[in-house]
Specification:
- By secondary structure, the protein is of the alpha+beta class.
- It has one domain (about 5-109): Ribosomal Protein S5, domain 2 (2-Layer Sandwich).
- Helix content is about 40%, strand content about 25%.
- The protein has 3 helices and 4 strands, in the order H-E-E-E-H-E-H.
- The chain has a 4-stranded mixed beta sheet with strand order 1-2-4-3, with helices on both faces.
- Helix 2 (about 55-75) runs parallel beside helix 3 (about 95-109).
- It starts with 12 loop residues before the first helix and ends with a helix.
- The model has no long low-confidence stretch (mean pLDDT about 90).
Length: about 110
């Protein structure tokens, strides 16, 4: 589970979705807003379009949180990030998620 200091509160997710800079990568949609408050914070959205089973959605949320955590801890430029997963016919593997997040952080620096 993502430590609470890195979690984006629910009421702050909507402003990031509305005004954030969007980066699409295959099935991941990432939106972020640069902030002055450290550390970077993450909100994860996985809807029922991804999978009807909550077990599968929760597993993907945990994988995303673990893939993001090293970057959130070491990020020099704090951001509020919302990660949204779209509908996919094949479940994403941890390596695919990790590659997408690597691309995101190299793109935003």
């Amino acid at each position: 589970m993502l430590p609470s200091r890195y979690q984006l509160p629910t009421h702050e997710i909507l402003p990031v979705l509305q005004r954030g800079i969007r980066i699409n990568h295959d099935m991941l949609q990432l939106r972020y807003i640069k902030t002055t408050k450290a550390p970077s914070r993450l909100g994860i959205l996985v809807g029922k379009m991804y999978d009807k089973k909550a077990v599968v959605r929760n597993r993907v949320k945990r994988q995303l949180a673990m893939a993001f955590l090293p970057y959130l801890k070491s990020d020099l430029h704090p951001k509020d990030i919302v990660c949204k997963i779209g509908k996919t016919s094949v479940p994403l593997t941890f390596e695919e998620i990790k590659n997408a997040i690597d691309t995101f952080f190299t793109h935003t620096l």
